[in-house]
Amino acid sequence: MTGRRLRLAFMGTPDFAVPSLRALIDAGHEVACVYSQPPRPAGRGQQLQRSPVQTLAESHGLPVRTPKSLRTAEAQAEFAALGLDIAVVAAYGLILPVPVLEAPRLGCVNVHGSLLPRWRGAAPIHRALLAGDSETGITIMGMEAGLDTGPMLLKGRVPITATSTATELHDALAAMGARLIVEALEGVAAGRLTAAPQPAEGVTYAAKLEREEGRLDWSRPAAELTRRIRALNPWPGVWFENGGERIKVLAAELGDGAGAPGSLLGDDFTVACGEGALRLTRVQRQGRGVVDGAAFLRGVHGLWQPGAPAAQAPAGVLTMPPAGVLTPGPADRP
């Protein structure tokens, strides 16, 4: 490595954090310990599975701790006893109490997936897409007691295009975060990197995603719905209901035509929205494989006719009745 070797702890859990840990290992820093969330039941057998960060750490022979909380005096004493220069946090998922934040000689730094102060909080990548932002990025920041309020060390920017998905942005930002955290640690160790406070203007919060956010409401503008589909796949997923069956929508694009919201406009699965139209290009029925929109319509026995007028639907569901429409129920109207 070109800079000073630091003794550090890495604290992270999901795939997003893996490139940063790998980059710190490759840069030659002394990773004294890796913290990750405890193994969780997953899959059909509900077997306990280690996090991606724990898996990588153990493959390199690094010690791993998976406490359920860092609020206990014992956990905080164990952390302080590591004698760290710095701690690096990336999508860890646990709150760091003040004694933990203050234990390393140079404090704790965070790899955050937004251009702070915009999108502080749990789901910055998805919220940037949902809001129609033109760019996002990575902020390397010093950590303090507030939620993502600490001073900024480095920033990197990534454009958000009309076709960007959450998965694409996640991967691009994870890679960028790995590059920037190595650069940041070199600057901090050399004393040439000065943190800047976040501006008071432009603060927004990226609330945790909820499953119900994936429900499509055809009364909304088509442009908004395309962003929702690109932002909320693969989780929590985007869907509507057809006769009580939930249909997943994995991809869509802006379509041509207009009509009553929910009207089926063509056999290519173009649906009228509150503004414009949306063509569903990849959908999936429960227990079935992914198909294109036209194939989906062919598979429902040809009951629906393009341009049919909107009809009433059961309360709180999105349906495609034989009349040929997708209609929001009362609970889905603004």
Q: Tags for this entry?
A:
334 residues; alpha/beta; Methionyl-tRNA Fmet Formyltransferase, Chain A, domain 2; 2 domains; 7-stranded mixed beta sheet; 6-stranded antiparallel beta sheet; 8 helices; 24% helix; disordered C terminus
Write the layout of secondary structure elements.
Elements: E1 7-12, H1 18-26, E2 30-35, E3 40-42, E4 47-49, H2 52-59, E5 64-65, H3 73-80, E6 86-90, H4 98-102, E7 108-112, E8 120-121, H5 124-131, E9 135-142, E10 152-159, H6 166-190, E11 205-206, H7 222-231, E12 239-242, E13 245-255, E14 264-266, E15 270-272, E16 277-284, E17 290-291, H8 293-298, E18 318-319, E19 327-328
Parallel strand pairs: 1-2, 1-6, 2-5, 6-7, 8-11
Antiparallel strand pairs: 3-4, 7-9, 9-10, 12-13, 13-16, 14-15, 15-16, 16-17, 18-19
Helix pairs in contact: 1-6, 5-7
